[in-house]
From TrEMBL, chains A, B:
Single GO molecular function: metal ion binding
Gene3D superfamilies: Aldolase class I
Protein name: hydroxymethylglutaryl-CoA lyase
UniProt source species: Limnohabitans radicicola
PANTHER family: HYDROXYMETHYLGLUTARYL-COA LYASE
Record flagged with keyword Lyase: yes
Superkingdom, taxonomy of origin: Bacteria
Record flagged with keyword Metal-binding: yes
PROSITE patterns reported in the protein's UniProt record: HMG_COA_LYASE, PYR_CT
Length: 302, 302
């Protein structure tokens, strides 16, 4: 087993997580969550989304949140930008990275954003161009790289196709997302392998959902391929609103516990991270959706 | 990655699981659970324990349960036997395998069974001898092989020591159990490596708890060492009554899902297994403690 000695985690809780809450979370709470994440040692945080509040009212406070964060040196704050209009609005808030997105499944692309994969990427081209011209990094989120709620299994060739399109328009690094959490280690490795046709391994992030409890074994399988960037969500916030039953971003706590147990550095203080997760979970009136957080909170309760 | 093409699962739910229920479960329900497990394709089932009902009232119906099972050819029914008296009682019920046990942690051994590791194994010697003389297989459950609730980290040397003692008294195969679920892949591999000093890999079973969400990544790490026997508990029944907060046998459903997703055969019908887990969970008045069972039941609910 050849494993990285250090892993970079991107916490997507404030955006991917809180976007899925029925009741919008106040900007002040989101800002506090970001502050707690960076205090815990997170150096990449997906903060918000510049989409129409008509579609995603949960992120209507995007500018307020970005403006309210006391930025910490060395931390990268990223935002989702679905189109040029969103990008222009995002630009004013000085994100370090923007995120564009596409699905490896045609059916998902059509149902989710009402166009083909190729069309979706074409629409993102000017956004990517504008971001790069403004000196802002660009990440591409590739959803449904293993399975699709409408199509079932997704072939690695479709992942390679999407990764190729992302590369063509100038995307600098990509997320290999198992959006509905159906992946298992060998299938996830095939999706990553397909992505490596177009991106260096250091420009690949694993994004695994825990719907079927597979996120950590998939993370281990990806680590064994040399992947060292992963996305996760504090307290396991969020999921996929488009796929019924497909809740379950893997919790950052569970990922950090495994990595530290394997001697892999993350720069994250697990106790402070559990505190951050407890803070937002308390606000939402539920327990953290994280085995590690629950075990540690139980232990603390003595 | 060199992986086995077939894995043998031992469901410990009826014993290790139901032993931890405050309210004893009626014998008829236990028998029905065993019937449903074998109907789902399980070929090894840990049925009950022949311990004093004073200590474990949940298993007081051991003979009734063993007597009530309609046995299926090719299925191995195992029972726990802590001493000769228990073994004599068990013998009348014709188990295929008995289970003796020991801890890799001295502190745990003292707190749990009030004697040293060496003493505990010495006491088991006549039980093992009697079982082998009667043509009954013998398995040794090794607890706390990674961490101990009283001692913290457990060194691989302690695992090797326990495995050696087990081998000496005639135990044929052993479980490497992470009783409190604190293990991560590399540490679990070290515990297995230590065990392999005394047992062939085909005589090693992985038994991982999911307390910190690590059971499946640990399973993957063990598979990669060639281990192909694993214990798990339908619906994630049970845990460890001796370690606070240490609930969490990994669910058989989650393990089966991962294995099948990797193309590894188990002979188990996942849908029927989910039914078996739903049956006992319904009886207990709660949801299965299994990501896969929840996801599949959600999906069925449409």
């Amino acid at each position: 087993m050849s494993l990285p000695s250090r892993v970079q985690l991107i916490d997507v809780g404030p955006r991917d997580g809180l976007q899925n809450e029925k009741q919008p979370v106040p900007a002040a709470v989101k800002i506090e969550l970001v502050h707690r994440l960076q205090a815990a040692g997170l150096t990449e945080i997906e903060v918000t989304s510049f989409v129409s509040p008509k579609w995603v009212p949960q992120m209507a406070d995007n500018a307020e949140v970005m403006g309210g964060i006391q930025r910490q040196a060395g931390v990268r704050y990223s935002v989702l930008t679905p189109n040029l209009q969103g990008f222009e609005a995002a630009l004013k808030t000085r994100p370090d990275e923007i995120v564009v997105f596409g699905a490896a499944s045609e059916a998902f692309s059509h149902k989710n954003i009402n166009c083909s994969i190729a069309e979706s990427i074409e629409r993102f081209a000017p956004v990517v161009q504008a971001a790069l011209a403004a000196g802002i990094a660009v990440r591409g989120a590739m959803s449904c790289t293993v399975g699709c709620p409408y199509e079932g299994d997704v072939a690695p060739e479709r992942v390679a196709y999407l990764a190729g399109l992302m590369k063509q328009i100038g995307v600098q690094r990509v997320d290999v997302a198992d959006t509905i959490g159906v992946g298992t280690p060998l299938r996830v490795q095939k999706a990553i392998e397909a992505t490596l046709q177009h991106f260096d391994v250091d420009h690949v992030c694993g994004h695994f959902h825990d719907t079927y409890g597979q996120a950590l074994s998939n993370t281990l399988a990806a680590l064994q391929m040399g992947v060292r960037n992963f996305q996760s969500s504090v307290a396991g916030l969020g999921g996929c609103p488009y796929a019924k039953g497909a809740t379950g971003n893997v919790s950052t706590e569970d990922v950090v516990y495994m990595l530290h147990g394997m001697g892999i550095a993350t720069g994250i203080d697990l106790d402070k991270l559990v505190d951050a997760g407890a803070f937002i979970s308390d606000f939402l009136g539920r327990k953290p959706n994280s085995n590690v957080a629950k075990a540690i909170l139980n232990k603390r309760a003595g």
